[in-house]
From TrEMBL:
<dbReference type="InterPro" id="IPR017150">
    <property type="entry name" value="Pept_M20_glutamate_carboxypep"/>
</dbReference>
<dbReference type="InterPro" id="IPR050072">
    <property type="entry name" value="Peptidase_M20A"/>
</dbReference>
<dbReference type="Pfam" id="PF07687">
    <property type="entry name" value="M20_dimer"/>
</dbReference>
<dbReference type="InterPro" id="IPR036264">
    <property type="entry name" value="Bact_exopeptidase_dim_dom"/>
</dbReference>
<feature type="domain" description="Peptidase M20 dimerisation">
    <location>
        <begin position="171"/>
        <end position="264"/>
    </location>
</feature>
<dbReference type="InterPro" id="IPR002933">
    <property type="entry name" value="Peptidase_M20"/>
</dbReference>
<keyword id="KW-0479">Metal-binding</keyword>
<keyword id="KW-0862">Zinc</keyword>
<protein>
    <submittedName>
        <fullName>M20 family metallopeptidase</fullName>
    </submittedName>
</protein>
<dbReference type="InterPro" id="IPR001261">
    <property type="entry name" value="ArgE/DapE_CS"/>
</dbReference>
<dbReference type="Pfam" id="PF01546">
    <property type="entry name" value="Peptidase_M20"/>
</dbReference>
<dbReference type="InterPro" id="IPR011650">
    <property type="entry name" value="Peptidase_M20_dimer"/>
</dbReference>
<keyword id="KW-0378">Hydrolase</keyword>
């Protein structure tokens, strides 16, 4: 790929104009029409910043944007354009700048980070940086996971532009598993012959007690029953019941332990049966995957004249979990500094936009200066 274009300007006002344009392009994950429209806006921004058009990769009707450098072992910048905010949110909560803060739906998670990534690619002029922007991260990346993993397998390192509440990179993220436990019993009249039924709700209650016992607070493993359903009418012994289950763990070993235990559940009521649906959604981003890049980021920040907060371990997951799960060195949380992800009033610290872009720029310069055949070791 030719040298990255020097189009546009790095003036703060210009960056805020771009950010307003991007935030006002609503992109709720489930609204494909709006997601496609926002992808068009992002593609235009890529051209404006870098002078090149990204490839549009459609998977099951959903657009993802990919810009490859042509390098055999590139550095991969990873971002997403979708948000959790429903269509129409900007009508009552538009992009606004008030002093040092900018607010608007998706500004923190993670449209400001996406723009900082474009700014860093342009400023670094690196020849071996690939960019992948997906559109379904907020719903578990069902269509983009294969694309993320394919591009990550080619990469020497992955930098994830997710936000940070206090400027600290994410050096560990819990893995996420998602399940539905279905219980099958037998219906009968609750007044005339309750003994003829097999109460799926009673069986579910017994299983929930077992599920909670699979958690390990010392290891940081949580097993949380969330949404439950049972029965059909108030005077009928329930023939069916189910519960959704959210499992989070710091290590793949813990994920495997819980998964094995769930698949070994047995009914307590004679005649009842169990079905387990789901499994591991995202593997953990373990500290070993981020350690070398975190050290490099701290040195880069020092060179730029500021101290980078120590890396943080968090329970939430991102697409960086996928890349780390492949053994690719991954550093997350390099996007915007601010507060309130997924909450009304989410905001980013405007003075930090340039500093964070400079940090990613410096990381790209240092990583690109290394021999392309040199791996970043975990």
């Amino acid at each position: 790929m030719t040298e990255r274009a020097r189009a546009g300007t790095d003036e703060p006002g210009a960056l805020l104009d771009h950010l307003e344009r991007l935030v006002m392009a609503e992109s709720p994950s489930e609204d494909l029409a709006l997601v496609r429209s926002c992808a068009d806006v992002v593609a235009d921004l890529v051209r404006e910043f870098l002078g090149e058009s990204p490839q549009r990769v459609d998977v099951e009707g959903r657009p993802h944007l990919l810009l490859r450098s042509g390098a055999e072992r590139p550095v991969l910048l990873l971002a997403h354009l979708d948000t959790v905010w429903p269509a129409g949110t900007t009508a009552h909560w538009p992009f606004t700048v008030d002093g040092d803060w900018a607010t608007g739906p998706g500004v923190f998670d993670m449209k400001a980070g996406l723009l900082q990534g474009l700014q860093a690619m342009r400023a670094s002029r690196a020849r071996d940086v690939d960019l992948l922007i997906t559109s379904d991260e907020e719903i578990g990346s069902p269509t983009s996971r294969g694309l993320i993993e394919r591009e990550a397998r080619r990469a020497r390192a992955v930098l994830v532009l997710e936000p940070s509440a206090d400027g600290a990179p994410k050096t560990a993220r819990k893995g996420v598993s998602m399940y539905r436990l279905q219980v099958h019993g037998r219906a009968s009249h609750a007044g005339l012959e309750p003994e003829a039924g097999i109460n799926a709700l009673v069986e579910l209650a017994a299983q929930v007690a077992v599920l909670e016992g699979l958690a390990d607070p010392r290891a940081g493993t949580t097993v949380t029953p969330t949404v439950a359903r049972a029965g059909s009418t108030a005077n009928t012994v329930p023939a069916a019941a189910e519960v959704a289950l959210d499992v989070r763990a710091w290590s793949a070993a813990e994920q495997d332990r819980v998964d094995t235990a769930l698949r070994s559940l047995t009914p307590t009521l004679s005649g009842a049966t169990l079905d387990l649906l789901g499994g591991v959604n995202r593997p953990p981003l373990e500290v070993a995957a981020s350690a070398s890049l975190m050290g490099l980021a701290a040195r880069c920040a020092e060179e730029l004249g500021f101290a980078l907060p120590a890396g943080r371990a968090v329970g939430g997951a991102s697409d960086g979990n996928f890349t780390a799960g492949l053994g690719v060195p991954t550093l997350d949380g390099l996007g915007a500094v601010g507060h309130g992800a997924h909450a009304p009033g989410e905001r980013v610290l405007v003075p930090a936009l340039a500093e964070r872009a400079a940090l990613v720029t410096r990381l790209l310069v240092v990583l690109s200066a290394a021999d392309e055949q040199t791996e970043v070791h975990t």
